[in-house]
């Protein structure tokens, strides 16, 4: 049963699952590499108001709006699902508000990882089903709202990645713009 469900939704896994796994793997690898490499200075905090943080904040806010919109339907299906979506929407708005200020690297990293976990949870609920709820281990159907919110959560992960690893730091360039003197 699970194999046939996976085959029916292989495109969703390719579109959402593989990029999400790649981002989580890249963030994890960077973190492991940073811990293994001796440092002379700590990595700088993400730049407040950067494109990455703005992208992550907007992804969180819009995904939270979608989650808040579907809360009543989830409460009708299961109190557990309704409570989860309520808490998720509130936490996403709080995280968006927090990273709009001056967030630390640990917070941005935690937001990236938790957003990736929400996408993975969505993928599992659509391919094999969840072990809890009104219909354990029965996959849910795909809908436009859940696909859009998962794409926004993936966008949040990407924004956090960009904020944690700006181009200038990755290339070892001082500043974000290079000037060519002629």
Task: Give a structural overview.
The longest helix is centred in the first third of the chain and has 27 residues, at 10-36. Helix 2 packs parallel to helix 7 (144-164), helix 4 (71-77) runs antiparallel to helix 5 (79-100) and helix 6 (105-127) runs antiparallel to helix 7 (144-164). Helices cover 72% and strands 0% of the residues. The protein is an all-alpha fold and 182 residues long. The chain has eight helices and no strands. It has helices at residues 2-8, 10-36, 51-69, 71-77, 79-100, 105-127, 144-164, 167-171.
Keywords:
182 residues; mainly alpha; 72% helix
What's the helical proportion of residues?
Answer: over 70%
- The overall average pLDDT, rounded, is 83
What sequence of helices (H) and strands (E) makes up the elements? Answer: HHHHHHHH
The main pleated sheet reads as: none
Structural class: mainly alpha
Tell me the strand percentage band.
Answer: under 5%
Rg calculated over all Cα atoms: 19 Å
Which residues form runs of ≥5 with pLDDT under 50?
A: 173-182
């Amino acid at each position: 049963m699970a194999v046939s469900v996976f085959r029916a939704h292989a495109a969703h896994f390719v579109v959402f699952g593989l990029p999400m796994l790649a981002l989580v793997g890249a963030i994890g690898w960077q973190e492991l590499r940073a811990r293994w490499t001796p440092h002379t200075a700590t990595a700088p905090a993400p730049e407040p108001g950067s494109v990455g943080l703005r992208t992550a904040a907007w992804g969180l806010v819009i995904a939270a709006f979608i989650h808040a919109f579907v809360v009543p339907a989830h409460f009708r299906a299961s109190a557990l699902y309704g409570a989860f979506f309520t808490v998720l929407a509130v936490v996403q708005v709080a995280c968006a508000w927090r990273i709009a200020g001056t967030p630390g690297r640990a917070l941005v990293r935690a937001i990236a990882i938790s957003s990736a976990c929400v996408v993975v949870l969505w993928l599992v609920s659509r391919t094999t089903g969840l072990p809890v709820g009104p219909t354990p281990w029965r996959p849910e159907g795909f809908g436009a709202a859940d696909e859009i919110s998962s794409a926004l959560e993936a966008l949040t992960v990407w924004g956090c990645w960009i904020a944690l690893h700006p181009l200038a730091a990755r290339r070892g360039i001082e500043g974000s713009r290079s000037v060519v003197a002629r």
